[in-house]
Design goal:
By secondary structure, this protein is of the alpha/beta class. It is 46% helix and 14% strand. The protein is built from 18 helices and 18 strands. It holds the Pfam family HTH_8.
């Protein structure tokens, strides 16, 4: 806001006081010939951003506007970036309550320099989450290097991590930087940290505390700047209490701990994840999207998934390669371990099966659907005979799901005018996010 000071009815100070109450973030610039020092000091105390003397010099006014607006513009940019990061993370992680909680925690910590410990069973997505956190962090343009701490032979582990100088051991015919130094400025991901040899843990502790190390055979310390993300298949605190892992190293690595639950404990995520992997695989292969039939969804939802997300993705990818336009329970079963099929609960009784916060069942036409309190999605087309309206509604729902609820993108994909598409959505009672308004009468 740009204002004079001496005005009828209300002067500049009164204006500043009212503006502060109704819009405290709005910058105020006084444009005036009034020069009384006490008055101007009081205006400064009230947070007036700048004074521009009359007669007004345009360049001076523009400079004052730029300086006053810059903090507000930066705040909007930061808020917008946070929203964008959160949206990106939810696309990667999924939208169930458990996945959203992990995504929110990951976005918060990604912007910091905290060391992060990821804990969860094999296949729960720790490596993928570590990569995503790095890509959302200020270090995204620097290296991201993975170290398999449990896979390195003890006699080579120190050289691999810290590097060595020429002649430090037999065969060291040149200087070599280690993986830690290669990650300078970026992120080092210590996978399977619980398997790190105890002999190496002491040197790793010194590095984590000080970001300093010495190459093998050298007497000169090097200092680097890296962010450390670790991952463990076991509860690392329990491992430290039992003496299998250094307790002091555990606390240095776990500035923040993110726990990834096994897939069997988040069954509401199975079908959405399966559909996500289905879409990714088809995009990669350049093929049309097949449908998961009723029994296939039942099988996917009831399996114990001992290999977690990694196993689910593998099964879906293999099923897409070998199935036709519809993926059946048999297509899922032949790519799943026999023990998992035996352990699965009822595969045939898909109707009325409740899975955590979502309800998966069949409608009156025996067409498989996913329903929660706000929306219903049909996974396969309604069977004939059915009306054209019903087929059109199904097509719109699938297009919105495929385009993550983006209506303009869905309309373009269907070759429709955007405003015509919007009117059709309203006609069918389809909400903005791609859901369907449910009549509870």
């Amino acid at each position: 806001m740009i204002s004079d000071i001496r005005m009828p009815v209300m002067d500049g100070l009164e204006l500043a006081e009212h503006l502060k109450m109704i819009s405290p973030e709005t910058p105020l610039i006084f444009c005036t010939a009034y020069t009384e020092t006490n008055y101007l000091l009081k205006a400064i105390e009230m947070g007036v951003s700048a004074f521009v003397r009359k007669p007004v010099d345009t360049d001076e006014l523009l400079e004052a506007i730029s300086k006053a607006a810059l903090p507000l513009i930066q705040k909007h940019a930061i808020d917008g970036l946070s929203d964008e990061l959160m949206a990106s993370m939810k696309i990667y992680m999924g939208s169930t309550p458990a996945q959203k909680a992990i995504a929110e925690q990951a976005v918060r910590v990604a912007k910091t320099s905290f060391n992060i410990l990821l804990q969860g069973e094999t296949g729960t997505g720790k490596s993928r989450l570590a990569t995503i956190i790095h890509s959302l962090s200020p270090r995204r343009d620097a290296p991201f290097i993975t170290v398999q701490t449990g896979a390195m032979p003890l006699n080579l582990a120190e050289s691999e991590l810290f590097g060595h100088i020429k002649g430090s051991f037999t065969g060291a015919d040149r200087n070599r930087i280690g993986l830690l130094e290669a990650a300078d400025g970026g992120t080092i991901f210590l996978d399977d940290i619980e398997s790190c040899p105890k002999e190496l843990q002491a040197k790793l502790l010194y590095f984590v505390e000080n970001k300093r190390f010495m190459q093998l055979g050298s007497k000169v310390e090097k200092k680097i700047d890296v962010r450390i993300i670790s991952a463990s298949n076991r509860n690392l605190k329990d491992e430290s209490l039992s003496g299998n892992f250094r307790e002091d190293l555990y606390y240095r690595l776990a500035d923040t701990t993110i726990k990834l639950p096994p897939l069997r404990e988040t069954r509401d995520a199975i079908i959405p994840l399966a559909l996500k992997f289905l879409r990714e695989t088809c995009d990669e292969l350049g093929t049309s999207l097949p449908f998961l039939d009723e029994n296939a969804c039942a099988t996917l939802s009831s399996l114990p998934w001992s290999g977690n997300i990694r196993q689910l993705k593998s099964v879906i990818r293999r099923a897409v390669l070998n199935a036709g336009s519809i993926i059946t329970a048999e297509d899922i079963a032949i790519h799943t371990d026999f023990e998992d099929i035996q352990a699965a609960s009822s595969q045939s009784d898909f109707k009325d099966m409740k899975i955590n916060s979502q309800y998966i069942g069949t409608d009156s036409t025996n067409c498989v659907s996913i329903t929660d309190s706000a929306q219903t999605f049909l996974l396969v087309p309604p069977p004939f005979p059915c009306s054209l309206d019903k087929l059109e509604r199904w097509a719109f729902e699938q297009a919105l799901r495929y385009c993550d609820g983006k209506r303009m993108k869905a309309a373009s994909m269907l070759g429709m005018n955007y405003y015509t598409f919007r009117r059709r959505l309203e006609k069918h009672g389809i909400t903005e996010g791609g859901g369907v308004e449910v009549n509870h009468e």
